Amino acid sequence: MYNLTIAHLYPEQMNIYGDRGNIITLRQRCAWREITTTLIPVMPGSSIDWQSVDLAFFGGGQDSGQALIAADFVEHQAEPLRRAAETGMVLLAICGGYQLLGHYFLTHTGEKLPGIGLLDVHTVGSTQRLIGNLLIEANWGTGRQTLVGFENHSGGTFLGKGVKPLGKVLAGHGNNGQDGSEGAVWQNVIGCYMHGSLLPKNPHFADHLLELALQRRHGASATLSPLDDQLELAAHNTMVERLQH
Ligand code: GLN
């Protein structure tokens, strides 16, 4: 019997465009396979045993929401979270959460929010927001590689040498609307701009994350049984077809 421990970073301050749906998707895809999950909400000031966490999720937020928790994130979570990430903990961060995994986010009003520097990226805000549907061709391995989502951010993120992009933009803006890249990856830490929610419409990506987490916890032979993803893939394929034209 498999089990996974999932941490949800700042669920009250950092949850826009239904990002919580990613947690629901992860847990439901486990439940369908009789994998038990324990959910740990990471609230301001929380002391978390990050070594026990298999998969973490950090959603997006308005600049004001990010300002509420940025210093707390650096002070209380940065170091133990980094150690867990170095040993393969899976972390998915969307938009505002992604920005706070980088070195800093300079908002369009000139406020410099500190990040934890786990991803070698930095973000600079602009008065021109990057908004719309987003389609990317990712490159995490085998199988279906398209991801669909929705972006809405003022911050443009620029990648350093320590990360690789999650994929290349086929439609939409991505990291910064300039270099055609979307997201950043280091170890099993993935940041991207894809709200949606992301995982319900990209079940292959949800399973990729779950498999990484499962194999870290239960060994390389741990695998996920297949699910009937007809509905989820119909949603995915509809967006791919619309955005490709
Ligand atoms: N506040 C950040 C920005 O506007 C993140 C927005 C978001 O999470 N959608 O860039």
Please tell me how large the radius of gyration is: 17 Å
**Percentage of residues in strands:** 25-35%
Question: What integer is the average pLDDT?
Answer: 97
**Low-pLDDT segments, ≥5 res:** none
Shape verdict:
globular
What is the first-to-last residue Cα distance? 45 Å
- What class, by secondary structure content? alpha/beta
Q: Based on DSSP secondary structure assignment, what is the total number of beta strands?
A: 12
Q: Please estimate the helix content.
A: 25-40%
**Series of H and E elements:** EHEEHEHEEEEEEEEHHH
Q: What profile does the largest beta sheet have?
A: 6 strands, mixed
Strand order of the largest sheet: 2-1-3-4-12-11
Work out the helix count: 6
Q: Which hetero ligands occur in this complex?
A: glutamine
Family: Belongs to the CobB/CobQ family. GatD subfamily.
InterPro entries: Class_I_gatase-like, CobQ_GATase1, GATase_3, Lipid_II_synth_GatD
Organism: Herpetosiphon gulosus
Protein name: Lipid II isoglutaminyl synthase (glutamine-hydrolyzing) subunit GatD
Question: Layout of SSEs?
Answer:
Layout (H helix, E strand, L loop, with lengths): L2 E7 L10 H12 L4 E7 L12 E4 L4 H24 L3 E5 L1 H6 L2 E3 L5 E3 L6 E18 L7 E14 L7 E5 L9 E2 L1 E3 L2 E4 L5 H4 L1 H16 L11 H15 L1
Parallel strand pairs: 1-2, 1-3, 3-4, 4-12, 5-7
Antiparallel strand pairs: 5-6, 7-8, 7-9, 9-10, 11-12
Bound molecules: glutamine.
Pfam family, one: GATase_3
Keywords: Cell shape, Cell wall biogenesis/degradation, Glutamine amidotransferase, Hydrolase, Ligase, Peptidoglycan synthesis
Pathway: Cell wall biogenesis; peptidoglycan biosynthesis
